[in-house]
């Protein structure tokens, strides 16, 4: 107290003297260094500030006063963390340095002091500019320090600390090497009992630890621990740095545990960190850091031992650490990451969904706060991946999975070669890709998962604690590949790896149950393929152990119980032991009860329990089992949760039970309603067309089966609705993206523009070509995943947008498949629409006519699927025999006489019959078409009649889509000739809406647009020479110009795909005489071949063809779909309808080059003769069907007989649309 009063008196007496103020400031500063009393430091700073203010400019005391003020402010910042103090300190020290002349003895000290202040501010703000300036100043100070100078060691140590800090921010190994070198040299210069020895040992230990983290070199880690423990040993009790050093030792010992699995190292680490926390006073700036370090150590213990108390302690410590961390602190991202890891572990251990939500939120914020080039960015991406993957497994949200894959790919991309975390991140990437395969069935994901996990395994040393997890992950992926391929080597390797994984997993490890469960599943799968009873016995045994090891409340307990139930049921199927099926039901029932509402697995558990109950019913006949199974499948099908394919499985089981045990129940209509709706949900707009079509192969025929059930219940209306809603799903998606928006635009222009914008994005998603990813770099894969994620987001936005639009009055069914009663309100007045359904149980037709309020049902009792399939095979044989079917393959020399087909052809095959086609057409007439004609009362048109024949729009389903129904009839002289052509003019439509939309939205073509653009491409690359195309286009052009029609002709290399598109926008009609290439997997890649490139459907769809009217595709097989997807309109004609053309002339198979020119000219002559006399500038497209009818009959007359070859020549031509 006396000293303080004396100092105050001294200050009062010398208030006006800057020299004395400076001296007093220095004295108070020294007093603070003795007392650590912040009041002393505050008075020192206040006094030095007055000294600086009173010191005249140019005075020799200015630089010392500023320097002392700066160092005093730095001291206070170190105590209380006020950023204003460090800013003022740096400012004062910079001014002092500017006033210090070169060669001045204090230059080095002032450079070092400024470096220390800049480093301190960097520590607080993360500003790399401060750190770079600090290093620059410290390096200069070091250069100015002579050898043997007592401050040399201190300055080397300071530089080492700064270089280490920069390494931590940038990952530059040169900085880390420089840091270690500086610390080692500093220690060499430090005497044994020097007071700075402990500090310098600790700093060296920290840098060595960082080198270990980068390289995984255990010898470096041992050196780090040795240095840190020695620093701790020589640190006196009560030293303020004791807590910091204890914490550093804890971190290094944790690293030793992670690298070696040494439990003693982990226990020592926790003990050291707890001691550090006890030594840290409340309010200390390092309290948050100490809490976070302890949280990480508790988390490590939990991961090793499954100790839930350790997990709770980790979360509590981490939460408090975050609360104590101020906004803007550079350590906030790290603490958020650690807290995220703890929270996701709680979810996995307890199923607490709130903890998972917190984990993702914290992980996302951590990533946002981490600079682009920060060395920990990869780690934070990887941690966020784990959280997102966990939520995907819970909710099934594909957006979470897509983001998880994108995050972990970035983590791998950012991880340098040789980094110890590379193997773990590759494992996480493999697991994420495997999860997507399990959901979507994409084999590329599975192949990449296996490849990635193999690489991870190769990078993992035999003694590494992660080896068991790596083996388990690869084993699961090989299991999945075995399910697809049936390759016994895959399942053998999977079981071998999983067994070794279990052997390497210590007792009590939290992942033991998961690894045992996976082993049991693999043994069960092998039993299903080989029937080896030992496998199922062992499978059940290990799955029971997995359930026993899984604590109540664990997120995976339900799955393990369910898997155990599957094992019991499989044994029951072989043994018939009712005890096994009872155990299966019990385990599956418990699994279902444990599954919370909203969990993605709820439908799987419902389906599995239903399957076991059904198995018992089939064995015992107990009706309550089948009734409960029915109820479970119904609940699964109608659930709001779970992937559509799982719900669809439930719906199909529901339908199957009703059909088998209660086929007359009206519930079957409800069940099929659900099946059709769920089928549409399996093909989403974010998927490429190729993937959508691949998915639909599994459900092909479902709408036809549903319609058959509806016919049996005398519900033709329902059959019509299902056939319209369940067929042509992808085609309908394409057309919905291009629907006219006039009404919506008038109602809300903003919503209309949103529809247009999203439509364009989603058309891009559909056009993506599925290409192998194996040769791509990681950055290219990241780019692809980002694109896929954008498409997924756009698809979700599309669904949300449609929901928003449908709230508006008048738009309740916007872009929804129309109910049956709306289909009959816009039918064409001059004909009938006939839908023909074929199924294994029956064949029926539905007829829609203008003015009729209900559909007419015509049972076709003489036709069957078996007969249809036989006709199909016979027709296919004939098409091959006459070389009218093949699209690709090896080319042959074109035959003489110009009889080339407009398709790429293989070597001709011999004629294998002359009456097969006649027989097929006769069968179609007798059993399929004529009964409909009779039911409708359509009369045969007399040969001499000049009246207008009625029209029929055929909408065939299933394999009937490949038949020339428009030509069904009798063509043998013995029976007399009679066919559809004698009764009506035929057209085809993919769906009823495709026709009614064109009727409803029919509008006149703009005055400047009517006319015909035509091009011929006789020598396109990849196709045979077709000279007739030149003749064809020349004849059409001469006809058009002669009649004064607006026309444009471009031949061969005169045009390009882009120029052709420009012309298509300027003309309402287009005639393409060329080769065509149809891509059944990705129809948007179907194309017309030009001399200079090709024109694909996707490119056509990008143009605005609002006045498109007629497209004549004078090429081969432009109207033939894919055999595996007969109800998906996978052909060029349907694509042109989707592009906006109202009507399309196409071909079912190859057309002959010698016939095509005359057919085309006859067609256009008919249009010219029947054009609108008021405005004769263009073609009247409404007569296209009649024009084609006329043109093909003229070809038939020229051919002169009804041989199969002649029939195939003219019946190939078909008309689609209005």
Features of this protein?
1218 residues; five-stranded mixed sheet; alpha/beta; six-stranded mixed sheet
Structural features, described:
This protein has 49 helices and 16 strands. By secondary structure, it is an alpha/beta fold. A six-stranded mixed beta sheet has the order 9-8-10-14-15-16, with helices on both faces. It has a five-stranded mixed beta sheet with strand order 3-2-1-4-7, with helices on both faces. A three-stranded antiparallel beta sheet has the order 11-12-13. A hairpin with a 2-residue loop joins β12 (1087-1090) and β13 (1093-1096). The radius of gyration is 40 Å and the shape is elongated. The chain starts with a helix and ends with a strand. This is TPR-like protein. InterPro entries: CHAT_dom, TPR-like_helical_dom_sf. Residues 921-1217 form the CHAT domain.
């Amino acid at each position: 107290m006396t000293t303080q009063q004396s100092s105050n008196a001294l200050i009062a007496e010398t208030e006006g003297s800057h020299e004395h103020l400076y001296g007093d400031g220095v004295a108070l500063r020294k007093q603070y260094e003795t007392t650590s009393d912040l009041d002393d430091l505050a008075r020192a700073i206040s006094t030095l500030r007055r000294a600086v203010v009173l010191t005249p400019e140019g005075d020799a005391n200015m630089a010392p006063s500023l320097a002392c003020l700066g160092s005093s402010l730095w001291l206070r910042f170190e105590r209380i963390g006020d950023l204003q103090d460090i800013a003022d300190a740096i400012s004062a020290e910079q001014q002092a340095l500017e006033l210090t002349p070169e060669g001045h003895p204090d230059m080095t000290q002032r450079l070092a002091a400024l470096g220390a202040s800049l480093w301190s501010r960097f520590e607080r703000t993360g500003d790399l500019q401060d750190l770079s300036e600090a290093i620059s100043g410290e390096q200069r100070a070091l250069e100015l320090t002579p050898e043997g100078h007592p401050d040399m060691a201190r300055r080397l140590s300071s530089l080492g600390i700064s270089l280490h800090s920069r390494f931590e921010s940038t990952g530059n190994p040169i900085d880390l090497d420089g840091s270690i070198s500086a610390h080692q040299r500093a220690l060499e210069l430090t005497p044994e009992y020097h007071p700075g020895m402990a500090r310098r040992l600790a700093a060296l230990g920290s840098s060595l630890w960082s080198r270990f983290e980068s390289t995984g070199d255990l010898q470096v880690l041992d050196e780090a621990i040795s240095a840190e423990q020695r620093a701790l040993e020589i640190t006196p009790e009560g030293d303020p740095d004791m807590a910091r050093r204890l914490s550093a030792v804890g971190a290094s010992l944790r690293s030793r545990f992670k690298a070696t699995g040494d439990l003693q190292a982990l226990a020592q680490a926790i003990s050291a960190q707890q001691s550090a926390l006890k030594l840290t006073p409340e309010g200390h700036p390092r309290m948050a850091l100490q809490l976070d370090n302890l949280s990480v150590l508790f988390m490590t213990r939990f991961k090793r031992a499954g100790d839930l108390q350790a997990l709770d302690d980790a979360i509590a410590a981490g939460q408090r650490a975050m609360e104590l961390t101020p906004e803007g602190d550079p350590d906030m991202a790290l603490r958020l990451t650690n807290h995220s890891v703890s929270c996701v572990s709680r979810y996995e251990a307890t199923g607490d969904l709130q903890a998972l939500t917190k984990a993702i939120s914290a992980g996302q914020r951590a990533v946002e706060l981490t600079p682009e080039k920060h060395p920990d960015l990869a780690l934070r991406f990887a941690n966020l991946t784990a959280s997102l993957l966990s939520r995907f497994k819970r909710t099934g949200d594909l957006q979470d999975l897509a983001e998880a894959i994108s995050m972990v790919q970035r983590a791998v991309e950012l991880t340098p070669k040789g980094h110890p975390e590379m193997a773990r991140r590759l494992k996480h990437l493999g697991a994420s890709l495997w999860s997507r395969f399990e959901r979507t069935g994409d084999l590329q994901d599975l192949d990449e998962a296996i490849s990635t996990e193999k690489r991870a395994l190769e990078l993992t040393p035999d003694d590494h604690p992660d080896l068991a997890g790596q083996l388990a992950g690869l084993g699961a992926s090989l299991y999945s590949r075995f399910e697809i391929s049936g390759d016994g080597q895959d399942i053998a390797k999977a079981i071998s790896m999983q067994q070794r994984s279990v052997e390497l997993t210590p007792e009590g490890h939290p992942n033991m149950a998961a690894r045992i469960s996976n082993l049991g599943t693999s043994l069960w799968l092998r039993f299903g393929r080989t029937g080896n009873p030992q496998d199922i016995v062992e499978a059940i045994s290990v799955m029971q152990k997995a359930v026993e090891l899984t604590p109540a409340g664990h997120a995976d307990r339900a799955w393990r119980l369910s898997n155990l139930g599957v094992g019991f049921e499989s044994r029951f199927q072989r043994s018939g032991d009712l005890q096994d099926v009872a155990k299966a039901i019990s385990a599956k029932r418990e699994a279902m009860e444990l599954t919370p509402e909203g969990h993605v697995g709820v439908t799987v558990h419902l389906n599995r329990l239903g399957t076991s109950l059904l198995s018992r019913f089939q064995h015992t006949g107990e009706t309550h089992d089948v009734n409960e199974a029915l109820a479970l499948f119904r609940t699964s099908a109608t659930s709001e949760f779970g992937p559509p394919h799982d719900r669809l499985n439930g719906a199909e089981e529901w339908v199957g039970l009703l059909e088998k045990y209660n086929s007359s129940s009206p519930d079957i209509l409800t069940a099929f309603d659900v099946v059709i709706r769920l089928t549409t949900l399996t093909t989403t707009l974010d998927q490429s067309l190729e993937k959508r079509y691949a998915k639909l192969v599994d459900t092909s025929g479902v709408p036809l089966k549903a319609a058959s059930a509806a016919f049996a219940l005398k519900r033709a209306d329902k059959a019509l609705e299902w056939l319209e809603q369940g067929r042509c799903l992808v085609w309908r998606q394409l057309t919905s993206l291009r629907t006219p928006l006039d009404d919506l635009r008038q109602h809300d222009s903003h919503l209309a523009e949103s529809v247009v914008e999203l439509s364009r994005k989603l058309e891009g998603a559909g056009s993506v070509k599925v290409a192998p990813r194996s040769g791509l770099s990681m950055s290219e894969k990241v780019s692809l995943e980002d694109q896929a994620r954008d498409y997924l987001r756009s698809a979700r936005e599309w669904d949300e947008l449609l929901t928003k639009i449908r709230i508006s009055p008048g738009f309740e069914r916007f872009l929804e498949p129309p109910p049956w009663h709306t289909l009959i309100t816009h039918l064409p007045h001059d004909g009938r629409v006939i839908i023909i359904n074929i199924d294994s149980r029956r064949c029926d037709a539905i007829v829609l006519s203008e003015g009729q309020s209900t559909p007419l049902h015509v049972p076709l009792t003489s036709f069957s699927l078996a007969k249809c399939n036989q006709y199909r095979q016979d027709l296919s044989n004939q098409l091959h025999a006459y070389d009218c079917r093949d699209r690709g393959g090896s080319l042959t020399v074109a035959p003489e006489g110009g009889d080339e087909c407009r398709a790429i052809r293989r070597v001709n095959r011999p004629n294998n019959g002359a009456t097969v086609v006649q027989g097929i057409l006769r069968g179609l007439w007798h059993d399929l078409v004529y009964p409909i004609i009779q039911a409708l009362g359509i009369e045969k048109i007399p040969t001499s009649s000049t009246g207008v024949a009625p029209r029929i729009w055929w909408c065939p389903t299933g394999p009937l889509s490949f038949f020339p129904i428009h030509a069904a009839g009798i063509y043998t002289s013995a029976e007399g000739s009679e066919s559809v052509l004698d009764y009506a003019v035929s057209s085809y439509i993919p769906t009823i809406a495709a026709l009614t939309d064109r009727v409803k939205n029919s509008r006149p073509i703009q005055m400047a647009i009517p006319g015909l653009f035509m091009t011929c491409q006789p020598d396109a690359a990849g196709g045979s020479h077709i000279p007739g195309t030149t003749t064809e286009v020349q004849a059409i052009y001469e006809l058009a110009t002669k009649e004064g029609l607006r026309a444009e002709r471009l031949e061969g290399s005169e045009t390009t795909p882009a120029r052709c598109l420009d012309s298509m926008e300027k003309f309402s009609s287009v005639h393409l005489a060329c080769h065509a290439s149809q891509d059944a997997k990705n129809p948007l890649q179907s194309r017309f071949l030009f001399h200079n490139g090709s024109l694909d459907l996707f490119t056509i769809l990008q143009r605005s063809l609002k006045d498109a009217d007629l497209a004549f595709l004078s090429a081969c097989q432009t109207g033939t779909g894919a055999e595996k997807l007969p109800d998906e309109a996978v052909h060029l004609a349907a694509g042109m309808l989707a592009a906006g053309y109202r009507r399309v002339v196409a071909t079912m198979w190859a057309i002959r080059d010698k016939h095509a020119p005359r057919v085309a000219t006859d067609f256009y002559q008919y249009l010219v003769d029947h054009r609108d006399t008021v405005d004769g500038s263009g073609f009247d497209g409404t007569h296209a069907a009649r024009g084609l009818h006329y043109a093909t009959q003229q070809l038939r007359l020229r051919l002169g007989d009804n041989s199969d070859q002649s029939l195939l020549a003219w019946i190939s031509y078909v008309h689609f649309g209005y």
